[in-house]
Amino acid sequence: MQLGVLVVGCGNIAGRFDHDRVDTDTPFTHAGAYARHGSFAIKACVEPNQQTRESFMKRWGVAAGFSSLTEALDAGLSVDVVSVCSPTSAHFDDLLAALKFSPKLVFCEKPVAQRLAQTELMVERCHQQGVMLAVNYTRRWDPTLIRLITEIRSGAWGKLRCINGVYNKGVLNNGSHLVDLLHLLFRELEIAHAGPGCVDMWPEDPSVPAFLIGDRAVPVMLNVSDARDYSLFEVQFVTERGVISMEEGGLRWRFRMAQDSPTFANYKALGSDQQQSGTLGQATLAAVAEIYNAVRHAGDLSSTGDNALKAQRICEALLARSLACSHSLESTHV
Fold first, then answer.
1. How far is residue 223's CA from residue 211's CA, in Å, rounded to a whole number?
2. Among 168-172, 195-199, 263-267, which is the least confidently predicted range?
3. Which of 100, 142, 193, 208 could be a cystine partner for 171, CB 3.0 to 4.6 Å?
4. Closest Cα to residue 17, out of 1, 3, 32, 2?
5. Cα–Cα distance measured from residue 275 to residue 31, given in angstroms and rounded to the nearest whole number
6. How many Å separate Cα 122 from the centre of its chain?
């Protein structure tokens, strides 16, 4: 028996990224993953832009489309799963409305809401109403990343010396992906410093450089680039036995192992690159499979409101410190 789905917002992550891709490709979107899994039926979508809505309906074979969640509610729509793919600024209101459908699960794009207090309220509301909340921190479903994180935690790479990350497009929008990834490694993160932010997409969500400290005093540097130049999300794990580099957001990995230096006697150096393709492309399909198992068989979810809250608390603290740093720098130049 298929699970009925309502998709809220019909943009890139809802389905557009897969619009012109063939059905044999690994899906990157909610609609693409639901279609590939085969045990979901997208019963309806909500999108205020008529052209965008009609294009989505045609591509994914959706029978009913609405310009608002109010219209969908008035139509008496009943669904098992609601996918919230609307802009972040609309998440809070859309989530409140989504709960009125009494779904079994809500699959929400990150962040859950624009403000920490809103996210806290939504997580609480979902708990109160018995609605499961899955949050699309994609890399929690990336097999390669999870395997490497497990190896690092187990000591297979020796001691973890430091982590260097670089991102853009906002500390909450993309930086939270990096913070959530770090929480897979560390139980807690301490903020040592946050620098002035770079407004490269949204004024309310600058990309913030920071220095964090993980468990066992592991230093973590978060650097930023400018999303107006190009998209960038990369992480380098420097360990006792070599360097692991996640590139292109996880679509490619690079490994350099420590070995005896061919040039200098009694020294160690990093060997030549060993590259491999990543499995980030499998993540959305894995998430949807897990959602099906959670709804049908009470299975666990790898990414929920709880880890989303933990990441957002760090991001909101970084924003506050970044703003204070900017004000301090401005005052010294007056």
1. 9
2. 263-267
3. 208
4. 32
5. 31
6. 18
Strands 64-66 and 40-46: parallel
d(CA 128, CA 89): 24
Q: Are 14 and 56 in contact (CB under 8 A)?
A: yes
What is the residue-wise DSSP string for 216-237? GG-EEEEEE--TTT---EEEEE
d(C-alpha 318, C-alpha 196), whole Å: 10
* Torsional class of 222: left (φ above 0), alpha (ψ -120 to 50), beta (otherwise): beta
CB half-sphere exposure, 130, CA atoms < 13 A? 5
- Indicate if the pLDDT at residue 179 is higher than 60: yes
Q: Which of 186, 255, 250 is nearest to 217 (CA)?
A: 186
| Spatial separation of the C-alpha atoms in residues 41 and 4, rounded to whole Å | 5
pLDDT, mean over the chain: 96
**CA neighbours closer than 13 Å in the CB half-sphere of residue 261:** 7
Percent of the chain with pLDDT over 90: 93
Number of other residues whose CB lies within 10 A of the CB of residue 276: 10
- Please give the residue that has the higher pLDDT: either 107 or 25: 107
Helices (H) and strands (E) in the chain, counts: 9, 17
- Looking at residue 152, what is its pLDDT? 98
Q: What is the pLDDT at residue 331?
A: 65
Whether the predicted pLDDT of 330 surpasses 80: no
Angstrom distance (rounded) from CA 281 to CA 139: 10
Pairing mode, if any, of strands 219-224 and 198-202? unpaired
